[in-house]
């Protein structure tokens, strides 16, 4: 019998925990979903609801402000060049609709939310016209991230989920780039697990 020298016990080096999915999804977002007042609203249910990035509202307001400025400038140019006033009818309608849209955009953005449940992703939106869609993970066929130049400038993107039924596909706008990538990877992993029956 040979004696082996006692080796000092090695303690494992602690590994820093990876950044959790929830913290990435909730970074730079609103704190809670706004719900419609009064009876007849769709309940939020239990679970953690994630929201859109705050930068989404700024991007929307800039885009709508550009439409407002172009419509106003076009109406003024037509009046200066031709001296007629008929262009104010369509321009006024465009300006009014754009102004109302700019006013309600912050509240509308806070009514968007999504929740990762055990078997599906639930997406909700709307104040007056509410929509709640549950997309089963096993039915997802494509997860797509898109963003335009203005979105890239503010670091946001939109995530599109495509299923076999076109009516059940959803688009989640205004996610931070990191949240969109994390959500895409999570959904792909879970969808593969569901399809293979693991």
Written description of the protein model:
The protein has about 200 residues and is an alpha+beta fold. It folds into two domains: about 25-30 and about 110-195, Pleckstrin-homology domain (PH domain)/Phosphotyrosine-binding domain (PTB) (PH-domain like, Roll), CATH 2.30.29.30; about 55-105. It is built from five helices and six strands. The chain has helices at about 20-25, 55-80, 90-110, 150-155, 175-195, and strands spanning about 115, 120-125, 130-135, 140-145, 155-165, 170-175. The strands form two sheets. Strands 1-2-3 form a three-stranded antiparallel beta sheet, with no helix packed on it. It has a three-stranded antiparallel beta sheet with strand order 4-5-6. α2 (about 55-80) runs antiparallel to α3 (about 90-110). Mean pLDDT is about 80; it is low at about 5-20.
What is the secondary structure topology, with strand pairs?
Elements: H1 21-25, H2 55-82, H3 88-109, E1 113-116, E2 120-125, E3 131-136, E4 140-146, H4 149-154, E5 156-163, E6 170-176, H5 177-196
Antiparallel strand pairs: 1-2, 2-3, 4-5, 5-6
Helix pairs in contact: 2-3
């Amino acid at each position: 019998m040979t004696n082996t020298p006692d080796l000092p016990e090695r303690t494992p080096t602690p590994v820093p925990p990876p950044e959790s999915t929830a913290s990435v999804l909730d970074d730079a977002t609103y704190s809670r979903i706004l719900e419609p007042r009064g009876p007849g609203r769709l309940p939020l249910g239990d679970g953690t609801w994630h929201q859109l990035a705050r930068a989404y509202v700024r991007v929307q307001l800039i885009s709508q402000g550009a439409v407002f400025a172009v419509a106003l400038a076009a109406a003024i140019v037509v009046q200066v060049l031709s001296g007629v006033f008929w262009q104010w009818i369509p321009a006024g309608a465009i300006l009014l609709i754009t102004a109302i849209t700019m006013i309600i955009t912050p509240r509308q953005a806070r009514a968007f939310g999504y929740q990762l449940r055990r078997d599906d992703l639930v997406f909700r939106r709307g104040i007056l016209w509410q929509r709640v869609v549950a997309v089963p993970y096993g039915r997802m066929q494509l997860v797509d991230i898109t963003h335009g130049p203005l979105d890239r400038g503010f670091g946001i993107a939109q995530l599109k989920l495509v299923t076999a039924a076109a009516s059940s596909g959803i688009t989640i706008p205004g996610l931070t780039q990191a949240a969109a990538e994390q959500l895409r990877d999570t959904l792909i992993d879970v969808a593969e697990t569901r399809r293979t029956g693991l």
